[in-house]
Design brief:
The complex is a heterodimer of chains A (398) and B (359). With 398 residues, chain A is of the alpha+beta class. Helices cover 45% and strands 13% of the residues of chain A. Chain A has three domains: 80 residues, Orthogonal Bundle (Butyryl-Coa Dehydrogenase, subunit A, domain 1); 108 residues, Butyryl-CoA Dehydrogenase, subunit A, domain 2; 151 residues, Butyryl-CoA Dehydrogenase, subunit A, domain 3 (Up-down Bundle), CATH 1.20.140.10. Chain B contains twelve helices and ten strands. In chain B, strands 1-4-5-8 form a four-stranded mixed sheet, with helices on one face. A four-stranded antiparallel sheet of chain B has the order 2-3-7-6, with no helix packed on it. In chain B, a hairpin with a 2-residue loop joins strand 2 and strand 3. The two termini of chain B are 29 Å apart. Chains A and B meet through strand 9, helix 9, helix 10, helix 11 and helix 12 of A and strand 9, helix 8, helix 10 and helix 11 of B. The complex binds flavin-adenine dinucleotide.
């Protein structure tokens, strides 16, 4: 066991650091560009150097590097340290994976280059009012009419639909096929008369997610990824190639450090809260979870490097991090004390400082988004521990 | 031994509940939650007509002369419906004046509190978490009071403030008096708006018999907040059960899933027994003086903690809908955040429990 990196990898880290020292933030004229343009420009340079879009072939704008989870980890942590733009995160990362594994030559040429630099923004059109956890029961339908798909239906909870250019969509193209076999994966331009995006306000006062209505919306016949009916399988693609379990646990560590800082600066009974035995105990208990998760990330990384299967632990990461997120936010809420009665939301939210009240609410949103905690537990129980599938769900899902 | 409610008490709760169901359904609740006004005039008048302005005010002064347990039962029902408005502050002001006022002061204020002609509130806390009467610093000198009071419910809509002062006593200050400044707090719970109040040589009338009444009023507040939290938590469970019985996924209502059933059962087991805790706390305030402090702090700490977790669980059971502003759950979650911190955190009250228990 050795937690250090090899000389080769340390040299690589140095190289990345030098690149970042010059490269981010942008300087001079470039610093005046819009945020998105700055990020795109920076990503192009990082791709040239082989730091981003490593799983994507050069022909599609990527840097096409051999799979190396250790280098990927170094890049992730060095970029995070200086807040430099990294590869687009979820849900765009899922689209990139899907296109890379199942897209046609034409689709990859057209969509991958602007998507990996962040110039083209996508949202994920999966959930519907009647289809959340049971995604396969979705009803938004698309029919091939001439050389176009004509789409009708509704999506909901679509994060960023208000700012995205394109939506990737799971919809029903064969109503007679069994649920999982009648869906297709379509790429659709949001900017068209047949689509209406209505913002939905979240409990924390933000309006990031939306309803998206399709009323004879159209997309070219060849904007389907995979064949008709393969939507379900296609949507499950991941870039196994560069899965990075460490990135998420680094974020949890950063959040925890902010909490410790809050404990130092808050007061309890006229003394710094961090001197209070109860707070110390709660912080240290939480540190147990955080450190477990952190090193569990390194352990999973090693499994990847050795080409081993992660097994059940790989299915636990989402639940582990959202549970930690809840505990961190709850302790922060307690540390804030009476300040928790004050919670300017939306536009009135204070800028800059970690805003713990909205954090408390957001930690709740994260345990619902992307597969609820119950669904995570089902996955861990059924696929991880080998328990039988829920009888009721199995019967109902047919 | 009879640890149950009377017919009258059940009727009181039922009457309030029916009134709120009719007059403050979800749509109305959201309008008020999103609106600018802290007090919805017609809703508050309706509550006054039900007698909520004077439940504990003695009968000679136009009230119903009931006990704190009755007030707490009303508070439970209001919490259940997340009722917006100035009830909490107004009710505590009535308790304070009845306890601490001399004949003239009671005569002057209590009847108009009972009829709602005068809207009152209590200004207990001071900045820096000073909820405890022993730590109040507002100073009275020559009939004038100076100091800052924090987290005052609906102060800007009130006519009369009952202000906690140095030494744990209470003084009456009229809101329109010179030297009273009020600044709205951007609060998490928009059903119960809060203000900061600054008093600069404001004319005041010290409640004559209030020397040790501040603490009792605060304890009454703890009972009311605990009752509110209990009502809110039980309503969260009901709403989550309703949702589990109607929302279908995988071809069945989600209540079929044992994960959901067990989560709801756990929520219920966490909450339901504590009904007896807030009853006891309110009863102790009325009738078991030696256990008043311990019971009030215990109920407040325990039940508001349960409410937070219950509201959170209920949001999760509602899925994406639970996370929206449009949905109802967010309002109860924010009530839970308020109840947990208002009048002091659970941790502070557990400390007090340990202290007064002689541990
Ligand atoms: C902040 C946020 C952002 C989101 N962004 C997007 C997005 O960009 N694109 C998109 O398509 N969607 C998005 N979603 C939607 C999200 O994926 C769904 O909300 C989630 O999958 C749950 O679906 P639902 O809301 O319909 O809840 P439901 O599926 O109705 O679930 C209700 C409750 O039932 C439980 N439940 C359901 N089935 C089972 C079962 N078999 N066993 C045990 N318990 C079960 C759930 O755990 C939950 O507690 C977002 C959601 C949130 C909160």
């Amino acid at each position: 066991m050795d937690l250090g990196f090899s000389e080769e990898h340390e040299a690589f880290r140095e190289e990345v650091r030098r690149f970042l020292a010059d490269g981010w933030p942008l300087k001079g004229e470039e610093a005046n560009l819009k945020r998105r343009a700055q990020a795109a420009l920076f990503r192009k340079r990082a791709i040239e150097r082989g730091y981003l879009a490593r799983a994507i072939p050069k022909a599609y704008g990527g840097s096409e590097r051999p799979s190396d989870p250790l280098r990927a980890t170094i890049i992730a942590s060095e970029f995070a340290r200086v807040h430099a733009p990294r590869d687009p995160g979820a849900p765009i990362s899922q689209l990139i994976a899907t296109l890379a594994s199942h897209g046609t030559e034409q689709q990859k040429k057209k969509f991958l280059p602007p998507t990996i630099t962040g110039e083209m923004v996508w949202c994920q059109g999966y959930s519907e009012p009647g289809a959340g956890s049971d995604l396969a029961s979705l009803r938004t339908k698309a029919e091939l009419v001439g050389d176009e798909w004509v789409i009708n239906g509704q999506k909901i909870w679509t994060t960023a639909a208000g700012v995205a250019h394109m939506i990737y969509l799971l919809c029903r193209t064969d109503p007679d096929a069994p649920k999982h076999k009648g869906m297709s994966y379509l790429l659709v331009d949001l900017n068209q008369p047949g689509i209406e995006v209505r913002p939905l306000k979240e409990m924390n006062g933000d309006a990031h997610f939306n309803e998206v209505f399709f009323d004879d919306a159209r997309t070219p016949a060849d904007y389907i990824v995979g064949r008709p009916g393969e939507g379900w399988i296609v949507s499950r693609s991941t870039l196994a190639h560069e899965r990075n379990a460490v990135g998420a646990s680094v974020a949890v560590r950063v959040q925890f450090e902010r909490l410790v800082e809050l404990a130092r600066t808050s007061e309890r009974n006229g003394r710094p809260a961090i001197e209070d035995p109860i707070i110390r105990d709660r912080l240290a208990e939480l540190d147990g979870y955080v450190t477990s998760h952190e090193y569990s990330g390194y352990r999973q990384l090693t499994m990847d490097v050795r080409g081993e299967k992660r097994g059940a632990i790989g299915m636990m990461n989402k639940l582990v991090s959202t549970e930690i997120g809840h505990r961190v936010a709850k302790l922060a809420f307690d540390l804030a004390g009476e300040a928790g009665l004050r919670a300017p939301l939306g536009d009135r939210k204070p800028k800059g400082d970690p805003d713990w009240m909205t954090q408390y609410m957001m930690s709740l949103g994260l345990s619902i988004a992307g597969g609820t905690s119950d669904i995570q537990r089902n996955i861990i129980g059924e696929r991880g521990l080998g328990l039988p599938r829920d009888f009721v769900a199995q019967k109902g899902a047919r | 031994m009879d640890f149950g409610l009377s017919e009258e008490q059940l009727l009181l709760q039922q009457t309030i509940d029916r009134f709120l169901e009719a007059e403050c359904p979800s749509t109305r609740l959201h309008e008020i939650f999103d609106g600018d006004e802290a007090v919805d005039g017609s809703l508050w008048r309706g509550m006054i007509e039900l007698g909520l302005g004077g439940l504990t005010i003695p009968e000679p002064y136009g009230g119903a002369g009931l006990g704190l347990i009755d007030l707490a039962l009303a508070s439970e029902t209001l919490g259940r419906r997340a009722a917006p408005g100035p009830f909490l502050g107004h009710a505590l002001a009535g308790v304070a004046i009845a306890l601490g006022g001399n004949e003239e002061q009671r005569e002057r204020w209590l009847p108009s509190l009972a009829t709602g002609r005068c809207l009152a509130t209590v200004a207990l806390a001071e900045a820096g978490g000073r909820w405890d009467p022993a730590r109040w610093q507002a100073r009275v000198q020559g009939g004038r009071v100076t100091g800052g009071k924090a987290w005052v419910p609906c102060a800007h809509a009130a006519d009369l403030l009952v202000v906690g002062v140095e030494g744990g006593g209470l003084a009456l200050v009229e809101r329109t008096a010179a030297g009273v400044e009020i600044a709205a707090v951007d609060g998490v719970d928009r059903t119960r708006r809060l203000d900061d109040v600054t008093l600069e040589n404001a004319p005041c009338d010290v409640l004559e018999r209030s020397r040790d009444v501040g603490g009792r009023v605060r304890d009454a507040g703890l009972c009311l907040v605990a009752a509110d939290a209990f009502g809110g938590a039980t309503r969260c469970i009901e709403m989550a059960v309703d949702h589990a019985n109607t929302r279908e996924q995988f071809g069945v209502t989600i209540g079929h899933f044992q994960a959901i059933k067990h989560r709801l059962a756990t929520m219920s087991v966490e909450v339901e027994p504590s009904r007896a805790l807030f009853w006891y706390a309110a009863h102790a305030w009325d009738a078991v003086p030696e256990d008043r402090q311990r019971a009030a702090s215990l109920a407040k700490a325990h039940i508001t903690d349960r409410f937070m977790q219950t509201a959170r669980d209920a949001v999760e059971i509602h899925g994406g809908m639970g996370f929206t502003w449009e949905g109802d759950m967010q309002i109860w979650l924010k009530r839970a955040m308020f109840d947990r911190m208002f009048l002091g955190s659970p941790a502070a009250h557990r400390e007090r429990v340990a202290r007064v228990s002689g541990w």
